[in-house]
Protein backbone atom coordinates (compact mmCIF):
# COMPACT_ATOMS: atom_id res chain seq x y z
CA UNK A 1 0.00 0.00 0.00
CA UNK A 2 1.18 3.53 -0.58
CA UNK A 3 0.23 7.14 -0.38
CA UNK A 4 0.12 9.44 -3.47
CA UNK A 5 2.43 12.40 -3.37
CA UNK A 6 0.79 15.72 -4.32
CA UNK A 7 0.96 16.25 -8.07
CA UNK A 8 3.47 13.48 -8.74
CA UNK A 9 1.37 10.36 -8.99
CA UNK A 10 4.10 8.42 -7.14
CA UNK A 11 3.43 6.31 -4.11
CA UNK A 12 5.36 6.53 -0.86
CA UNK A 13 5.70 3.35 1.21
CA UNK A 14 4.07 3.51 4.62
CA UNK A 15 5.33 0.21 6.10
CA UNK A 16 8.46 1.72 7.62
CA UNK A 17 9.34 0.62 11.17
CA UNK A 18 8.23 2.93 13.94
CA UNK A 19 10.42 5.04 16.16
CA UNK A 20 10.42 2.48 18.95
CA UNK A 21 11.40 -0.33 16.61
CA UNK A 22 14.26 1.74 15.18
CA UNK A 23 15.47 2.48 18.70
CA UNK A 24 15.31 -1.22 19.53
CA UNK A 25 17.32 -2.05 16.43
CA UNK A 26 19.98 0.51 17.30
CA UNK A 27 20.18 -0.23 21.02
CA UNK A 28 20.25 -3.94 21.93
CA UNK A 29 20.00 -3.17 25.65
CA UNK A 30 16.73 -1.32 25.13
CA UNK A 31 15.44 -4.24 23.08
CA UNK A 32 16.51 -6.63 25.83
CA UNK A 33 14.69 -4.52 28.43
CA UNK A 34 11.48 -4.40 26.41
CA UNK A 35 11.58 -8.13 25.72
CA UNK A 36 12.02 -8.70 29.45
CA UNK A 37 8.96 -6.54 30.16
CA UNK A 38 6.97 -8.48 27.56
CA UNK A 39 7.91 -11.74 29.26
CA UNK A 40 7.11 -10.25 32.69
CA UNK A 41 3.65 -9.18 31.48
CA UNK A 42 3.01 -12.43 29.59
CA UNK A 43 3.86 -14.59 32.60
CA UNK A 44 1.65 -12.43 34.92
CA UNK A 45 4.47 -10.97 36.98
CA UNK A 46 2.26 -8.34 38.62
CA UNK A 47 -0.26 -10.99 39.64
CA UNK A 48 2.44 -13.10 41.29
CA UNK A 49 3.96 -10.04 43.00
CA UNK A 50 0.57 -9.19 44.53
CA UNK A 51 0.12 -12.78 45.75
CA UNK A 52 3.60 -12.82 47.28
CA UNK A 53 2.82 -9.53 49.03
CA UNK A 54 -0.23 -11.11 50.64
CA UNK A 55 1.70 -14.17 51.83
CA UNK A 56 4.55 -11.98 53.10
CA UNK A 57 2.21 -9.88 55.26
CA UNK A 58 0.34 -13.00 56.38
CA UNK A 59 3.58 -14.71 57.46
CA UNK A 60 4.59 -11.78 59.68
CA UNK A 61 1.95 -12.49 62.32
CA UNK A 62 3.14 -15.99 63.32
CA UNK A 63 6.71 -14.68 63.28
CA UNK A 64 5.63 -11.97 65.74
CA UNK A 65 4.10 -14.68 67.93
CA UNK A 66 7.37 -16.59 67.92
CA UNK A 67 9.24 -13.38 68.75
CA UNK A 68 6.92 -12.67 71.68
CA UNK A 69 7.37 -16.23 72.95
CA UNK A 70 11.18 -15.90 72.73
CA UNK A 71 11.00 -12.58 74.57
CA UNK A 72 8.84 -14.25 77.22
CA UNK A 73 11.45 -16.95 77.82
CA UNK A 74 14.16 -14.31 78.12
CA UNK A 75 12.16 -12.21 80.61
CA UNK A 76 11.14 -15.28 82.62
CA UNK A 77 14.82 -16.15 83.10
CA UNK A 78 15.78 -12.58 84.07
CA UNK A 79 13.37 -11.29 86.73
CA UNK A 80 15.43 -8.14 87.36
CA UNK A 81 14.93 -7.08 83.75
CA UNK A 82 11.20 -7.79 84.03
CA UNK A 83 10.98 -5.66 87.18
CA UNK A 84 12.77 -2.83 85.38
CA UNK A 85 10.29 -2.98 82.50
CA UNK A 86 7.33 -3.05 84.90
CA UNK A 87 8.67 -0.01 86.73
CA UNK A 88 9.15 1.95 83.52
CA UNK A 89 5.63 1.08 82.35
CA UNK A 90 4.10 2.25 85.64
CA UNK A 91 6.10 5.48 85.57
CA UNK A 92 5.17 6.19 81.94
CA UNK A 93 1.49 5.14 82.21
CA UNK A 94 -0.01 6.02 85.55
CA UNK A 95 -3.14 4.58 87.09
CA UNK A 96 -5.15 1.52 86.19
CA UNK A 97 -4.03 1.48 82.54
CA UNK A 98 -0.40 0.96 83.55
CA UNK A 99 -1.38 -1.97 85.77
CA UNK A 100 -3.37 -3.50 82.89
CA UNK A 101 -0.31 -3.31 80.64
CA UNK A 102 1.83 -4.99 83.29
CA UNK A 103 -0.78 -7.75 83.74
CA UNK A 104 -0.91 -8.22 79.95
CA UNK A 105 2.87 -8.69 79.79
CA UNK A 106 2.80 -11.15 82.69
CA UNK A 107 0.00 -13.19 81.08
CA UNK A 108 1.91 -13.26 77.80
CA UNK A 109 5.00 -14.53 79.63
CA UNK A 110 2.95 -17.23 81.36
CA UNK A 111 1.50 -18.39 78.03
CA UNK A 112 4.85 -18.28 76.22
CA UNK A 113 4.93 -22.03 75.56
CA UNK A 114 1.50 -22.24 73.90
CA UNK A 115 2.06 -18.99 72.00
CA UNK A 116 5.43 -20.26 70.77
CA UNK A 117 4.04 -23.62 69.61
CA UNK A 118 1.09 -22.04 67.81
CA UNK A 119 3.38 -19.44 66.28
CA UNK A 120 5.85 -22.06 65.07
CA UNK A 121 3.12 -24.24 63.54
CA UNK A 122 1.46 -21.27 61.84
CA UNK A 123 4.80 -19.89 60.69
CA UNK A 124 5.74 -23.24 59.14
CA UNK A 125 2.40 -23.46 57.33
CA UNK A 126 2.49 -19.85 56.13
CA UNK A 127 6.18 -20.14 55.23
CA UNK A 128 5.58 -23.21 53.06
CA UNK A 129 2.76 -21.41 51.27
CA UNK A 130 4.97 -18.37 50.73
CA UNK A 131 7.83 -20.51 49.42
CA UNK A 132 5.54 -22.45 47.06
CA UNK A 133 4.21 -19.25 45.49
CA UNK A 134 7.70 -17.75 45.27
CA UNK A 135 9.10 -20.81 43.48
CA UNK A 136 6.11 -20.98 41.16
CA UNK A 137 6.48 -17.28 40.29
CA UNK A 138 10.20 -17.63 39.55
CA UNK A 139 9.58 -20.77 37.49
CA UNK A 140 6.96 -18.91 35.47
CA UNK A 141 9.43 -16.15 34.70
CA UNK A 142 11.85 -18.82 33.41
CA UNK A 143 8.92 -20.48 31.58
CA UNK A 144 9.54 -23.78 33.32
CA UNK A 145 6.49 -26.01 32.98
CA UNK A 146 7.23 -28.91 35.30
CA UNK A 147 4.82 -31.59 36.37
CA UNK A 148 4.49 -31.82 40.18
CA UNK A 149 6.23 -34.74 41.86
CA UNK A 150 3.45 -35.24 44.37
CA UNK A 151 2.26 -33.35 47.42
CA UNK A 152 4.77 -34.77 49.91
CA UNK A 153 7.81 -34.39 47.64
CA UNK A 154 6.80 -30.85 46.70
CA UNK A 155 6.40 -29.83 50.35
CA UNK A 156 9.72 -31.40 51.31
CA UNK A 157 11.42 -29.61 48.44
CA UNK A 158 9.79 -26.32 49.48
CA UNK A 159 10.84 -26.91 53.09
CA UNK A 160 14.48 -27.45 52.07
CA UNK A 161 14.36 -24.33 49.88
CA UNK A 162 12.80 -22.33 52.72
CA UNK A 163 15.50 -23.40 55.17
CA UNK A 164 18.24 -22.57 52.66
CA UNK A 165 16.68 -19.18 51.90
CA UNK A 166 16.36 -18.47 55.63
CA UNK A 167 20.05 -19.23 56.17
CA UNK A 168 21.05 -16.99 53.26
CA UNK A 169 18.83 -14.20 54.64
CA UNK A 170 20.45 -14.55 58.06
CA UNK A 171 23.91 -14.28 56.51
CA UNK A 172 22.92 -11.22 54.49
CA UNK A 173 21.32 -9.55 57.51
CA UNK A 174 24.46 -10.20 59.59
CA UNK A 175 26.70 -8.77 56.87
CA UNK A 176 24.39 -5.80 56.44
CA UNK A 177 24.42 -5.15 60.20
CA UNK A 178 28.22 -5.08 60.20
CA UNK A 179 28.09 -2.24 57.68
CA UNK A 180 26.02 0.04 59.91
CA UNK A 181 27.46 2.97 61.82
CA UNK A 182 27.41 1.58 65.37
CA UNK A 183 29.16 -1.74 64.62
CA UNK A 184 31.75 0.13 62.56
CA UNK A 185 32.28 2.61 65.41
CA UNK A 186 32.72 -0.31 67.81
CA UNK A 187 35.33 -1.80 65.49
CA UNK A 188 37.16 1.54 65.41
CA UNK A 189 37.14 1.74 69.21
CA UNK A 190 38.42 -1.81 69.40
CA UNK A 191 41.24 -0.84 67.03
CA UNK A 192 41.89 2.33 69.11
CA UNK A 193 41.14 4.62 66.16
CA UNK A 194 39.72 8.05 67.13
CA UNK A 195 36.15 8.78 66.06
CA UNK A 196 36.39 11.70 63.64
CA UNK A 197 33.36 13.41 62.12
CA UNK A 198 34.55 12.52 58.62
CA UNK A 199 33.87 8.90 59.44
CA UNK A 200 30.09 9.58 59.40
CA UNK A 201 30.02 10.00 55.62
CA UNK A 202 32.41 7.10 55.18
CA UNK A 203 30.20 4.88 57.34
CA UNK A 204 27.15 5.92 55.34
CA UNK A 205 28.84 5.06 52.04
CA UNK A 206 30.17 1.76 53.40
CA UNK A 207 26.72 0.92 54.75
CA UNK A 208 25.09 1.48 51.35
CA UNK A 209 27.82 -0.50 49.59
CA UNK A 210 27.57 -3.45 51.97
CA UNK A 211 23.77 -3.37 51.72
CA UNK A 212 23.96 -3.54 47.92
CA UNK A 213 26.46 -6.40 48.03
CA UNK A 214 24.49 -8.55 50.44
CA UNK A 215 21.21 -7.83 48.63
CA UNK A 216 22.95 -8.79 45.40
CA UNK A 217 23.91 -12.11 46.97
CA UNK A 218 20.38 -12.73 48.21
CA UNK A 219 18.62 -11.87 44.94
CA UNK A 220 21.11 -13.87 42.87
CA UNK A 221 20.50 -16.88 45.10
CA UNK A 222 16.73 -16.53 44.68
CA UNK A 223 16.85 -16.10 40.90
CA UNK A 224 19.23 -19.01 40.32
CA UNK A 225 18.33 -21.61 42.95
CA UNK A 226 14.67 -21.17 43.91
CA UNK A 227 13.00 -22.07 40.58
CA UNK A 228 11.81 -25.65 40.26
CA UNK A 229 14.78 -26.33 38.00
CA UNK A 230 18.03 -24.58 38.95
CA UNK A 231 19.51 -22.39 36.23
CA UNK A 232 23.05 -21.27 35.53
CA UNK A 233 24.34 -19.17 38.41
CA UNK A 234 26.38 -16.91 36.13
CA UNK A 235 23.25 -16.05 34.15
CA UNK A 236 21.57 -14.71 37.29
CA UNK A 237 24.47 -12.60 38.57
CA UNK A 238 23.74 -9.53 36.44
CA UNK A 239 20.01 -9.83 37.08
CA UNK A 240 20.68 -9.99 40.83
CA UNK A 241 22.83 -6.86 40.61
CA UNK A 242 20.08 -5.00 38.74
CA UNK A 243 17.52 -6.02 41.37
CA UNK A 244 19.87 -5.03 44.21
CA UNK A 245 20.50 -1.56 42.76
CA UNK A 246 16.78 -0.98 42.20
CA UNK A 247 16.02 -2.23 45.70
CA UNK A 248 18.57 0.11 47.28
CA UNK A 249 17.20 3.11 45.39
CA UNK A 250 13.67 2.22 46.40
CA UNK A 251 14.76 1.71 50.02
CA UNK A 252 16.30 5.18 50.19
CA UNK A 253 13.18 6.74 48.69
CA UNK A 254 10.97 4.69 51.01
CA UNK A 255 12.81 5.89 54.11
CA UNK A 256 12.16 9.50 53.07
CA UNK A 257 8.49 8.62 52.48
CA UNK A 258 8.10 7.09 55.95
CA UNK A 259 9.78 10.04 57.64
CA UNK A 260 7.33 12.35 55.90
CA UNK A 261 4.19 10.28 56.47
CA UNK A 262 4.55 9.42 60.16
CA UNK A 263 4.50 13.08 61.16
CA UNK A 264 0.69 13.24 60.94
CA UNK A 265 -1.61 11.20 63.24
CA UNK A 266 -3.31 9.42 60.34
CA UNK A 267 0.06 8.72 58.74
CA UNK A 268 1.41 7.34 62.00
CA UNK A 269 -1.56 4.96 62.22
CA UNK A 270 -1.79 3.74 58.62
CA UNK A 271 1.47 4.86 57.00
CA UNK A 272 3.66 1.99 58.26
CA UNK A 273 1.12 -0.67 57.20
CA UNK A 274 0.66 0.83 53.73
CA UNK A 275 4.40 1.38 53.48
CA UNK A 276 5.04 -2.27 54.33
CA UNK A 277 2.60 -3.44 51.65
CA UNK A 278 4.09 -1.14 49.01
CA UNK A 279 7.58 -2.17 50.07
CA UNK A 280 6.78 -5.88 49.70
CA UNK A 281 5.00 -5.42 46.35
CA UNK A 282 7.81 -3.36 44.80
CA UNK A 283 10.45 -5.77 46.12
CA UNK A 284 8.77 -8.82 44.60
CA UNK A 285 8.11 -6.96 41.36
CA UNK A 286 11.81 -6.07 41.12
CA UNK A 287 12.81 -9.67 41.77
CA UNK A 288 10.40 -11.13 39.20
CA UNK A 289 11.24 -8.54 36.55
CA UNK A 290 14.96 -9.17 37.05
CA UNK A 291 14.28 -12.89 36.67
CA UNK A 292 12.43 -12.21 33.41
CA UNK A 293 15.38 -10.08 32.31
CA UNK A 294 17.77 -12.94 33.06
CA UNK A 295 15.51 -15.42 31.27
CA UNK A 296 15.45 -13.37 28.06
CA UNK A 297 19.25 -13.32 27.94
CA UNK A 298 19.73 -16.93 28.98
CA UNK A 299 20.80 -19.59 26.46
CA UNK A 300 17.52 -21.37 27.13
CA UNK A 301 15.56 -18.55 25.48
CA UNK A 302 14.37 -19.75 22.03
CA UNK A 303 15.23 -16.42 20.39
CA UNK A 304 18.83 -16.70 21.56
CA UNK A 305 19.22 -20.40 20.82
CA UNK A 306 21.12 -21.44 17.71
CA UNK A 307 18.96 -23.52 15.42
CA UNK A 308 20.78 -25.71 12.87
CA UNK A 309 19.39 -25.73 9.32
CA UNK A 310 17.47 -28.83 8.33
CA UNK A 311 19.36 -31.54 6.43
CA UNK A 312 19.10 -31.49 2.60
CA UNK A 313 16.18 -33.29 1.11
CA UNK A 314 17.07 -36.48 -0.80
CA UNK A 315 14.73 -37.40 -3.65
CA UNK A 316 15.04 -41.07 -4.60
CA UNK A 317 12.40 -42.26 -7.13
CA UNK A 318 11.22 -45.82 -6.77
CA UNK A 319 9.82 -47.92 -9.64
CA UNK A 320 7.67 -50.85 -8.59
CA UNK A 321 7.06 -53.60 -11.18
CA UNK A 322 4.22 -55.92 -10.35
CA UNK A 323 3.85 -59.23 -12.21
CA UNK A 324 0.43 -60.54 -13.03
CA UNK A 325 -2.93 -59.00 -12.52
CA UNK A 326 -4.77 -58.36 -9.35
CA UNK A 327 -8.30 -59.74 -8.89
CA UNK A 328 -9.90 -56.39 -9.58
CA UNK A 329 -7.81 -55.92 -12.67
CA UNK A 330 -8.74 -59.44 -13.93
CA UNK A 331 -12.46 -58.78 -13.47
CA UNK A 332 -12.14 -55.43 -15.25
CA UNK A 333 -10.28 -57.04 -18.17
CA UNK A 334 -12.91 -59.80 -18.50
CA UNK A 335 -15.70 -57.25 -18.46
CA UNK A 336 -13.95 -55.11 -21.10
CA UNK A 337 -13.39 -58.22 -23.27
CA UNK A 338 -17.05 -59.25 -22.99
CA UNK A 339 -18.24 -55.79 -23.94
CA UNK A 340 -15.83 -55.68 -26.92
CA UNK A 341 -16.89 -59.13 -28.15
CA UNK A 342 -20.55 -58.20 -27.91
CA UNK A 343 -19.97 -54.99 -29.84
CA UNK A 344 -18.07 -56.77 -32.64
CA UNK A 345 -20.74 -59.45 -33.00
CA UNK A 346 -23.45 -56.84 -33.50
CA UNK A 347 -21.41 -55.03 -36.13
CA UNK A 348 -20.92 -58.25 -38.15
CA UNK A 349 -24.65 -59.03 -38.02
CA UNK A 350 -25.60 -55.60 -39.44
CA UNK A 351 -23.25 -56.02 -42.38
CA UNK A 352 -24.85 -59.33 -43.34
UniProtKB/TrEMBL annotation:
Residues 1-21 are annotated as: Disordered. The keyword Magnesium does not apply. It is found in: Cell membrane. The chain crosses the membrane at residues 52-76, 113-132, 159-181, 202-224, 230-250, 270-295, 330-348. It comes from the Bacteria. Its main location: membrane. It is a multi-pass membrane protein. Keywords: Cell membrane, Membrane, Transmembrane, Transmembrane helix. This is Inner membrane protein YhjD.
Amino acid sequence: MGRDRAGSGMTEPTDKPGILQRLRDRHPRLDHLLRAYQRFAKQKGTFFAAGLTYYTIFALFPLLMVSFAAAGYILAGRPELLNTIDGRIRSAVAGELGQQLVDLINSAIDARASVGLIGLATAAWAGLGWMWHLREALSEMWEQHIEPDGYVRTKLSDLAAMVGTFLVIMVTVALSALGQRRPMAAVLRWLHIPDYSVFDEIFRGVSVLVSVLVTWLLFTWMIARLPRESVHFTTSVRAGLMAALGFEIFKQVGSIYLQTVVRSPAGAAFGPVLGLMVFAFVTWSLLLFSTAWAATSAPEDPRDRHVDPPPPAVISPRILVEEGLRPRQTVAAMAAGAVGALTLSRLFRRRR
